[in-house]
Design a protein that fits this description.
This protein is of the alpha+beta class and 616 residues long. A hairpin with a 2-residue loop joins strand 6 and strand 7. It is elongated, with a radius of gyration of 34 Å. The two termini are 61 Å apart. About 2% of the residues have low confidence.
């Protein structure tokens, strides 16, 4: 938000402007106001209290939406400015006075207070921090440079600084966590670099020595192939990218005039190995909860940036933080500065989130329709049907969409045909004849093989139309398992949750009817677990499992709280829905009559059902 109010993303000078004020506290002691290009930090006495002054400006909206948004993001503006103050002035800042007092304490408050942040890192947590010569000018230049970055590196810089701040505060209670957070912040920043291709010399020296001994006994070409395979390790690539990135962002002066006097400072010859050890300790802590070396918490070493243990170099916290500060400084200075950038800043305002639009607002749209839209359309239609099953609602008028389906079906691939035919069948079988597409039964008959196959799309259709699944239980179960494994692929169908539970109950019933009670219990138990958070469903499922009776899942829809029905869509008058329960019973009776008239044949049972639906 701080970068947004600079105005570099605005296209006009028609702005809404407000004076902004904030209060902050710090261990920085100065009487001198600090003014930057975006805000000023003005001391209120010498007690560490400061007033932040800035101009919160946003571009007026044009057209019908003009001036609806007049102010946003003051909290974020202050937070980001304080982040820049903290690392630009190397002092601790917060909007809570108690937070400053806690982090900058010099004595333990109680026996369990094991960690004093000021013991691990210099200056940041000193009780009284004074400005250094030329520090204000350096800070002002730092702020200007950060705000001039393109949006992507700016956001990465802010996230990086926030991670470092959180790491410093973590020193109050978990040194291992603080150390690991600093490493992962630099690792995250390194992901902005070009991919790193490790060489054989980057492989772990101990393992490399053992392998080299073995390679001497095999052909050199085979050894080279093995080396190339080992170098494909993603962990090795990430580690080496981290090490290479950090070293490339350390200036010569970092090891020279900027290095503080101490017995054991950071040494460039040992740094690559020390960074690998830091990365390894971070990985062990993150993945195995293994603690860092005890020496990192040892007070006698706090005044050193590096130490050696069993011949290996390790970086102390103060050294790691100095590296992290230098890395971000160099990173920022190497980025391109721009005065203006085309960026959709309104979507980045605090509190703005993106949600999926309810299907009733888009599922009926047919403009620009292509076969790849079939599965999202079916998903939206299924979600709308689930809503209808829970409370009275109207179905959008999909006749124009169905007409488009008839046109593009022949040239579509099989997976798109499945989704289109499922929606086509479901819609036309659910509205009164006046709302159906003329001759829709002939269209379904043209694609009879797809309509009759056991697919996730057809499982959902049979469920909503209250028809028993016509496939063997094992086939239905296998199809549902495949659906479960692939449902999160956006190119595949996604069935709403309550329909999934109902399908599982239907499959369980099929196993019960097939006299396979063990499979009935497996499916009902799994369905009950999947119904987590729905006590009515779980209780009903558990009761059915105990008594080995099928679940009347439709009654559970009827018991759910009814919501106020909202208009289906503005596209046209929606055709009324048929009463699905009554239609199912009537269709079943008529289909049975037709089947009997045909002499009770053993094949082509779908024919009588289609004919019964048509006549009704």
């Amino acid at each position: 938000m701080l970068q947004i109010i600079t105005g570099k993303f605005f296209k006009s000078k028609d702005l809404i402007m407000h004076e902004g004020l904030g209060i902050a506290y710090s261990n920085l002691r100065t009487y001198q106001p600090i003014k930057t290009c975006i805000a000023s930090l003005e001391p209120a006495g010498y007690s560490g209290s400061y007033v932040i002054k800035y101009i919160n400006q946003i571009e007026k909206e044009s057209g019908e939406r003009q001036a609806k948004l007049v102010r946003a993001g003051d909290t974020e503006i202050i937070d980001q400015f304080l982040l820049l103050c903290m690392f630009g002035l190397r002092a601790f800042f917060a909007v809570d006075r108690a937070q400053v007092a806690t982090n900058c304490r010099i004595e333990r408050h109680h026996d369990g207070d094991r960690s004093l942040p000021g013991k691990f890192v210099p200056r940041f947590f000193d009780p009284d921090v004074l400005l250094l010569p030329n520090q204000i000018e350096t800070f002002q230049a730092f702020i200007s440079k950060v705000l001039s970055l393109r949006r992507a590196p700016y956001e990465l810089t802010i996230r990086y600084l926030a991670a470092l701040r959180d790491a410093l505060e973590a020193l109050n209670y978990n040194v291992d966590l603080a150390y690991s957070m600093i490493v992962y912040a630099m690792e995250a920043l390194s992901q902005s670099a070009v991919p790193f291709e490790p060489a054989w010399g980057d492989y772990d020296p101990k393992s490399r020595g053992l392998l080299e001994h073995s390679f001497q006994r095999i052909d050199a070409s085979i050894a080279d192939e093995i080396k190339a395979s080992l170098l494909q390790s993603s962990h090795l690539r990430l580690q080496q990218r981290f090490v290479s990135f950090v070293i490339s962002h350390l200036s010569d002066s970092f090891f020279g005039v900027e290095a503080p006097p101490m017995a054991m400072g950071l040494r460039p010859s040992a740094l690559p190995r020390a960074l690998k050890n830091a990365y390894r300790m971070r990985s062990n802590f993150a993945h195995s909860l293994k603690n860092l070396l005890d020496q990192i918490r040892t007070p006698i070493l706090f005044d050193s940036e590096m130490f050696f243990w069993e011949g290996e170099p390790y970086i102390m916290l103060r050294g790691l933080l100095r590296i992290a500060e230098e890395v971000i400084r160099v990173y920022v200075n190497r980025q391109e500065s721009v005065d203006h950038e085309d960026f959709a800043w309104r979507s980045n305002l605090p509190g703005v989130i993106t949600l999926e639009m309810a299907p009733m607002h888009w599922v009926w749209r047919h403009e620009g329709l292509i076969p790849e839209h079939a599965h999202p359309k079916l998903r939206g239609l299924l979600e709308h049907f689930e809503q209808i099953m829970q409370s009275p609602d109207a179905l959008p008028d999909l006749r124009e969409l169905m007409a488009k389906y008839e046109v593009i079906l022949p040239q579509s691939v099989l997976r798109s045909k499945r989704a289109m035919l499922a929606a086509y069948w479901l819609y036309n079988a659910s509205v009164v004849p006046a709302g159906q597409r003329p001759g829709y039964e002939k269209v379904l008959d043209t694609y009879r093989s797809i309509v009759q196959e056991c697919s996730p799309e057809n499982l959902a259709v049979y469920l909503i139309l209250h028809r028993s699944l016509p496939w063997p239980a094992d086939d239905s179960a296998a199809t549902f398992r495949t659906y479960q494994a692939e449902r999160f692929n956006p190119r595949n169908v996604r069935i709403p949750r309550l329909m999934e539970l109902s399908l599982m109950a239907e499959i369980a019933k099929m196993y019960l009817n097939a006299d396979r009670p063990e499979q009935f219990e497996v499916w009902m138990k799994e369905a009950s677990m999947e119904a987590s958070g729905l006590p009515d469903w779980q209780n009903a499922m558990d009761n059915c499992r105990r008594n080995r009776i099928p679940l009347d899942w439709l009654s559970l829809f009827d018991k759910r709280p009814k919501s106020v029905a909202s208009p289906a869509t503005a596209n046209s008058e929606s055709p009324p829905l048929v009463n699905r329960r009554d239609l199912h019973d009537a269709t079943e009776r008529r289909a049975y009559e037709l089947w009997e008239r045909r002499g009770r044949p053993t094949a082509d049972d779908q024919r009588d059902w289609y004919e019964a639906e048509r006549r009704l």
